[in-house]
Amino acid sequence: MSFDGSFTHAMVNELQSELIGGRITKISEPYPNEIIITVRAQRQNYQVLLSANPTYARIQTTTIPFQNPPVPNNFTMTLRKHLQGSFINQIHQVDNDRIVHLHINTRNEIGDLEELVLVIEIMARHSNIMLVEAQNRNIIDVIKRIGPDKNRFRTILPGSKYVNPPQQDLLNPFQLSDFSVIERLDHDFPNLEVLAGELRKHLQGLGIDTSLALADALHQSGGSLQTKYADFWQKFNHPSPVTTLTRQGKLGFAPFPFPPLQIEQHFNSLSTMLDQFNQTKVQRERVREQGAQLIQITRNELKKNRKKIKRLEKDETDAVNADQYRVKGEVLMTYLHQAKPGMNQISLPNFYDNNQPIEINLKVELSPSANAQWYFKQFQKKKNAGQYIQQQIQNAQAEIDYFENIESQIELANPENLDDIKTELQQSGYLKRQTGRQNKKVQVSQPEKFMATDGTVILVGKNNLQNDKLTLKTADKRETWLHTQNIHGSHVIIRSFDPSEQTILEAANLAAYFSKARASANVPVDYDLVKRVKKPNGAKPGLVHYTGQKTVYVTPNQELVEQLRRNAKK
């Protein structure tokens, strides 16, 4: 289901139960066009996400960790100035539209109490977040500024008046008083898809999937039409959230189960469900957006080196056949008296093959003796090339292995991990450095921390620079190191000199989950003492050799990974 007006209605009910009366303690913008407001309410902290992302605009509470940018932008600074320390006294939805107002009591610069409204409009590429004065509707600031050159009907700039988006002449389905409209539509349009389309034309805030679900509910046998209509909308007031799969396997979400969608997983709240959905979908989108340059470089290098290996393998085949040039040169020198100047071909007995005739092509511009010398030179050239080609194939294969590893890391990366990958490619010369940053010391981000069931800390590197720092500098030589066997993945360190068997298995599960084998079963994971893990001289970041390892086999388990992650936050 889309984040339509009906889903917004359910989400506002959830936020009201959690946030009303809460105090705003922190404001951040971890990603472009997304604000995180930390609210202290009911003796706990809630992270409220306001997103104006063109694809995944929404409002929810979230438990997904994020990193603050080093320098906050102007809109974040404005919100901090006006809202930090203030209280949320009301949250409401405008009709059944995708517009939510957070009414906030705060004090102005001279200490007088005033009311500000944080407005989020969830409207695809037109989504926006703005801070508005409640009394005179003046816009204080906005995350996406819209001038008259972009929209002459609705200017959204600091200092201008806030005007609601143009209203559609539609009925609010939660406040429907004249039920004859629904009765007429149900009578006139017995086809499910057609009825759904007509419902969207008359009722406000219905996405395609919501209208189809409503049409299906109205078509169910038993009970009056009005009862079926009321029961359907009551489910938005008391949701039972689920993630869903279509018949084509596409992941989605809904405030409650409805056919024909297959239920993937049940959740206790809409926000928890959106977190799960967005961790698997939105996170990938963010990585694709922010890592587009890295993805392009990786694909180009893989394509280039795969082509290079094909070309080298062809040259290698020619080198294997180099001996035929030596044979022709020796046969020609033996029967040199039979070759006459100006001949372009000659057939001579091959004493290496029971004197069977061998055809030898000649260059007419060369003497017979010079032709023989040409064959000897070709033989030596191709013989030398064979050794060079082998080395080049090994180098190209090493490049492919390296960039397949980078590709795997990008696939598994969170957006905050991309900076390390970018730095690594800059240091290796695959990506140009930004001007003025050549001599700046690189700060590698920290590995992710997990905690085993018995309380042992486990660290997981998410990219090559993290892996190198974690294994070669952070870890004690007596601690245990893990990595998937012959599979690209993360370095994992158990911060214990004598870990239990259960801790080793849990750490192995992390190693398998944060590897290219995440979707596989029975993944081999090697574990060894850190002191036996060595980095070869001149090796690329992340590459190590180790000896004396033991191997366990595990199946990656996302629920276990989340549990170990939660353990580390307690």
UniProtKB/TrEMBL annotation:
<dbReference type="GO" id="GO:1990112">
    <property type="term" value="C:RQC complex"/>
</dbReference>
<feature type="domain" description="NFACT RNA-binding">
    <location>
        <begin position="450"/>
        <end position="537"/>
    </location>
</feature>
<comment type="function">
    <text>Key component of the ribosome quality control system (RQC), a ribosome-associated complex that mediates the extraction of incompletely synthesized nascent chains from stalled ribosomes and their subsequent degradation. RqcH recruits Ala-charged tRNA, and with RqcP directs the elongation of stalled nascent chains on 50S ribosomal subunits, leading to non-templated C-terminal alanine extensions (Ala tail). The Ala tail promotes nascent chain degradation. May add between 1 and at least 8 Ala residues. Binds to stalled 50S ribosomal subunits.</text>
</comment>
<dbReference type="GO" id="GO:0019843">
    <property type="term" value="F:rRNA binding"/>
</dbReference>
<keyword id="KW-0820">tRNA-binding</keyword>
<protein>
    <recommendedName>
        <fullName>Rqc2 homolog RqcH</fullName>
    </recommendedName>
</protein>
<dbReference type="GO" id="GO:0043023">
    <property type="term" value="F:ribosomal large subunit binding"/>
</dbReference>
<dbReference type="InterPro" id="IPR043682">
    <property type="entry name" value="RqcH_bacterial"/>
</dbReference>
<keyword id="KW-0699">rRNA-binding</keyword>
<dbReference type="GO" id="GO:0072344">
    <property type="term" value="P:rescue of stalled ribosome"/>
</dbReference>
<dbReference type="Pfam" id="PF05670">
    <property type="entry name" value="NFACT-R_1"/>
</dbReference>
<dbReference type="Pfam" id="PF05833">
    <property type="entry name" value="NFACT_N"/>
</dbReference>
<comment type="similarity">
    <text>Belongs to the NEMF family.</text>
</comment>
<dbReference type="InterPro" id="IPR051608">
    <property type="entry name" value="RQC_Subunit_NEMF"/>
</dbReference>
<comment type="subunit">
    <text>Associates with stalled 50S ribosomal subunits. Binds to RqcP.</text>
</comment>
<dbReference type="GO" id="GO:0000049">
    <property type="term" value="F:tRNA binding"/>
</dbReference>
<dbReference type="InterPro" id="IPR008532">
    <property type="entry name" value="NFACT_RNA-bd"/>
</dbReference>
<keyword id="KW-0648">Protein biosynthesis</keyword>
<keyword id="KW-0694">RNA-binding</keyword>
